Amino acid sequence: MNIKSLYIHTIGCQMNVYDAEKMAAGLLALNYLPVASAEEADLILLNTCAIREKAEQKVFSYLGRLASLKNRKPHLIVAVGGCVAQQEGRRILERVPHVDLVFGTHAIGRLPALVGKIQRDRCRLVDVTMAEGFQEAASCRPQIFGGVSRFVTIMQGCDNYCTYCVVPYVRGREASRQPEQIIAEIEALVASGVREVTLLGQNVNSYGLKERLCSFSDLLARVDAVRGLARIRFTTSHPKDLSEHLIQAFGRLTKLCNHIHLPVQSGSDRVLKKMNRRYTRADYLEKVRRLREVRPDIAITSDFIAGFPGETAADFDATLDLIRQADFDGVFAFMYSDRPVAPAARFADKLPEAEKKRRLQTLLAVQDLYTVRKNQALIGTVQRILVDGASKKLGEAPLDDSPHAPQWVGRTTTNKIVHFSTADAAPGLAPVEPGMLIAVRIENAFAHSLRGRPLECQTPCTGVEGENSHAA
Ligand code: SAH
Ligand code: SF4
Ligand code: F3S
């Protein structure tokens, strides 16, 4: 058997991370095995993102750097997939002579056939055909990728057409995956040792509506019943579709983590309207209130766009005020970036780059006060963390005692990163392994992580019962 090497470089969101696994799983049929560096590869896949101009620029600078490698290794195949591939199609082949294949977001299932044809004929190909319905690709092959926590896509595409956003154009119409396929994939992952899944969709709250499958909260209940699974997360939730039924699921489902990512984008009703978000600031804050009523200790995170076209100083103040009222655990914020295909690119009153940057920095500085305060409030508490694996770095804390002791990293149910060392452990701690749920007392809090000391080892989790103490 002639084994070949595959290197995948992924830019973009969790969906691209998931898609990369599907690409690699499909290419196993052609004897491609993943390797850790581009230099050793026979096939390089660049998995791209078009969400902001910067992400798109990264694609062409990465491709530029591959030119000399391709000169040295003429048999090397260079393929470009993902959202920029879908958006630009043939233009990538014209612009970059050493690219052999451009395949779009709906062509992942056809990737092995496309690569097979290039191997045989040494031709250059483009496949950016889109189709209706959920596009299934190769099965997930959990044993190859391993890990404790994995993504599972439950929906593709988006029908919301927020005026700034490229996603509906590059991922196509919203389509939900059959619940049986989702459950089968999760069961296979759990059988290979996975303990946590994050269900992915651009707007998981509208799962199944179009196809008349089950509702998202019913799907969550089915995932909750998978034996051996310990934790469930999901992303992203569109505030307009966050139903009371789903909010109540947080009070019911034992494996559903204490965290929701609920992107608000702006605190100004005028801007939300121009963004076509279809909720108001008051609607949003009411949903936050209900979530906290049902799960008082739920962590809530959000996304913001700073400097949307026409955003006035008063609009921006309304955003800062919403941040203060919502009391988020953390936020992601981005400077508005024109996407030529999206309507906002043609809106009047664009803000200068310097002003967008100033607003972004102000927003992040205001949120940091809340993030740090929330993290500091955890000092002295005991948190159950799911151990992800050995920590590559020591976290944000200087280690004064045992710099050579094994360092571990895990997450709380609220999705906060916790570093700990087994040298700090209580006597009698069983050997730590990825996938364990262990109790850790938090001793230090930083801007982006916590540091703790393990108390005692839990029995390796069976997943028969979840962690949510509010659930009935
Ligand atoms: N489906 C998700 C968002 C996916 S894109 C949702 O509706 O929340 C992730 C984030 O990128 C968005 O929440 C938004 O904050 C940001 N984003 C999208 N388009 C952008 C643009 N043109 N400029 C700047 N940020 C953008
Ligand atoms: Fe983009 Fe809006 Fe769809 Fe999210 S909901 S992917 S922001 S169009
Ligand atoms: Fe980027 Fe495509 Fe995801 S544009 S954010 S990789 S859906």
Could you explain how this protein is built, in words?
With 472 residues, this protein is an alpha/beta fold. It has three domains: 4-127, Methylthiotransferase, N-terminal domain (Rossmann fold, 3-Layer(aba) Sandwich); 144-374, tm_1862 like domain (pyruvate-formate lyase- activating enzyme), CATH 3.80.30.20; 382-458, OB fold (Dihydrolipoamide Acetyltransferase, E2P), CATH 2.40.50. The protein has 15 helices and 19 strands. Helix 14 (313-326) links the parallel strand 13 (299-306) and strand 14. The termini are far apart. The protein binds S-adenosyl-L-homocysteine, iron/sulfur cluster (SF4) and FE3-S4 cluster.
Short description, anyone?
The protein has 472 residues and is an alpha/beta fold.
Care to count the β-strands? Answer: 19
Q: What would CATH call the class of the largest domain?
A: Alpha Beta
- Strand order within the widest beta sheet: 2-1-3-4-5-6
The CATH topology assignment of the largest domain is pyruvate-formate lyase- activating enzyme
Helix content percent band: 25-40%
Number of domains: 3
